[in-house]
Amino acid sequence: MRDSARNRLSRTSPLRSFILILLLMICAAGLIFLDATGKLTPLRDQAQSALAPAFGALQGLGDQMGGVGRGLTDVQQLRGRVDDLEKQVSSLQDEHIQNQALKLENEQLRKQLKIEQESPWKLLSVDVVSVTPDVGRHTILISRGSEDKVAVGMALIGQEGGSPTSLVGIVDQVYPRSARVLLISDYSSLVSVKVYHQGTVTDGIAQGQFQRGAWLQLEEVDRLFPLKADDQVVTAGLTAQMNLDLPNAAIPRNIPIGLVQRVWTEGSRQYAEIRPYLNPDQVRYAWVILSHDD
What is the DSSP string of 4-73? Predict the structure, then answer.
């Protein structure tokens, strides 16, 4: 049964194909004739109107896809540009830092040259690494040591803003590439000084008062000396000769220290507060006096 049915289908298939092709040709000829006579124009216009939104949507989607592709390309280009700009900014920052360091170094060298021209001292420039209380002692750590011929007892001077070149402290401990300086404001610091008042001068001692909440105190001044506020206090250069409790310090004379403030009398002696020209805690660049002709 199945074989006979298959045989019948195989015999009728060419005939059906021919009929279908003939019908399609007749339909095509009819459509061509109708189009030629203009009878399909209203139908075609309606079809175009009905399909126009769909065609517009498809075209818009295509434009959007193209825009996305262009957008991705633009984003990649922008990212590359941002990377280039970041590298340029980093390079400029490095250059700026180097320029600032060179500017500061040149400024310090100019100051050093001016000091050496005005005073008989050989100087070594140093950076202040840190300010350290060190179990109650008022000290700083500087960036040069015995490898640069820094020795215990050498004076450290500094200059900030419009202040004169002033005494900051005395080298107390020395290491190969650094040294610790005892600031003049420390209570254990004793420096022989001279006080000038309207053409007259007298001797005294400047003792640190940091642990007592002040900077410096002027002591051992004769009661008869006309000591007044704003009198200038400088080093006397007598510290080593007076056998004071300092590590063999030999501080040059005439290094500015500060100005007299409040004055009072006890017995046969006068005392005064000294306002230092420099705040030792704020000094960041200084010089060690390696040698002097005093």
Answer: HHHHHHHHHHHHHHHHHHHHHHHHHHHHHHHHHTTTTHHHHHHHHHHHHHHHHHHHHHHHHHHHHHHHHH
